[in-house]
Amino acid sequence: MDEIKDSEYFQETPYTEIKSFFDSSPPLKDVFEINRKLEEFMERNYSSSENKRTRRVVCITSGGTTVPLEQRCVRYIDNFSSGHRGAASTEYFLKAGYSVIFLYRRGTCQPYCRSLPDDPLLECFEITDKSNIGVNPAHSEAVKKAVSEHHSAVIEGSLLKLPFTTIFEYLQILQLIALSMRSLGSSAMFYLAAAVSDFYVPWETMTVHKIQSQSGPLDMRLAQVPKMLSVLRKDWAPMAFCISFKLETDTKILLEKADIALAKYKMHMVVANELLTRKEEVIVVSKSGNITVHRDKNQPGADVESPLIKLIVERHSEYIKDSGS
Ligand code: 9Z3
């Protein structure tokens, strides 16, 4: 069994490490557009003026981050995540009345698209006569449901989708989102299901051009990605309700690791899951004890996210009540 060292409990990420990560990251391309979308979204969903809606807002992160090996990137290291957890959770949070900022890896599973075939454009549509195109009847129910539910979330303005690819983009956008949600106080929630790289190549030490293979075996040293969870809790959005995920493939260390994350990063909940059984059950770890949440096996197609989000919403309501807002 992996030995978990005491230092893992007590070491906090030094601010200098976090600052140097951001200072040395390549600048975010669409920063103005992202900030504009965030401002518009917050204005629509949360305002102190009485005649406007005041809603709970959750930032859901989804999919894996990449670590480029070259600045003009041909090769990269990836973190596994299909995005199913984030997409399904988005649907359940919207159903529960939350507004959702969905920070997702480009190309991964999207809300309301889970029951569509792998290649929806080509498989769901067919040529009906010479000039028209229609929905293949085999998929018409799934398409109708996906389109109408997605459209109502978009028209209502309760779903904002922001894509990322690299670890640099992910952490920079997460910071922008957190700072824009700061004023929501305890109505804000972070549900951090993205699979985030632990190691990366700092931009300034990265080769610009494609690494050449004739130089023999590749020998490279990866730096540790500073953990941003503590700075999210302490500085970016100190009143927000924060849930992180812990993924392991060895069940023997899963709960121990989740306990460490709960204490070290002062999370309100840690959702512990094992790779092979992640769609069947998760264990919610919090100060008040552990709760195992299962998918309802008697209902075909039932998701583990359904009871999971129900539990989280209950806990968030208690948190809002206790914090007096
Ligand atoms: C998770 O544990 C997610 O539940 C999964 C979902 C990635 C397993 P899918 O997208 O899978 O439905 O295919 N996410 C967090 C993974 C992670 O990187 N956690 C870090 C860690 O375990 C903490 S931030 O150290």
From TrEMBL:
Location of the DNA/pantothenate metabolism flavoprotein C-terminal domain: 177-293
Pathway: Cofactor biosynthesis; coenzyme A biosynthesis; CoA from (R)-pantothenate: step 2/5
Gene Ontology annotations of biological process type: coenzyme A biosynthetic process
Keyword Plastid included in the entry's annotation: no
Keyword line: Coenzyme A biosynthesis
Origin: domain of life: Eukaryota
Molecular function as annotated in GO: phosphopantothenate--cysteine ligase activity
Keyword Membrane: no
Any Pfam family matching the protein: DFP
Homology family: Belongs to the PPC synthetase family.
The protein, known as: DNA/pantothenate metabolism flavoprotein C-terminal domain-containing protein
Lineage: Eukaryota, Viridiplantae, Streptophyta, Embryophyta, Tracheophyta
